[in-house]
Amino acid sequence: MAANVMPCPSCGVKNRVPAVSSGKPTCAKCHGELPWLVDATDADFAQVVDTSRLVLVDLWAPWCGPCRMVAPILEKLAHDFAGSLKVVKVNVDGSPATSQRFDASSIPMLVFLRDGAVVDTIVGAQPEHVLRSSVEQLISRG
Known about the structure:
By secondary structure, the protein is of the alpha/beta class. It has helices at 45-48, 65-80, 96-101, 128-141; strands at 4-7, 14-17, 36-40, 54-60, 85-91, 109-114, 117-123.
């Protein structure tokens, strides 16, 4: 499992953000919370989503136009909700077992998990205010 490199929103220092962690990613310099945006595959999906944070699983494909439209919104949400939200991107072409697990017959499909259980699902590209509202409501339910 590779780590993504993410700039700290507070100080700008680039940090490695692991796909799997028992805590939450923080900046090595200022200790601020880092956005948690990682990729997962069938092989490591269970480990990657094993966290107490709210997990937003993005089932997507590179050829999907609406998926590409949603991607920057999800990146923004990962930044805005650093410390509370983990965004996990799963390419359905390379991870058929994960897409079958969630019955992903249409993409993009966003699956919200808490402690491994599905708490909400959104199918299709949605504007930022709709996705932000869903994340806020799910985080507030804790």
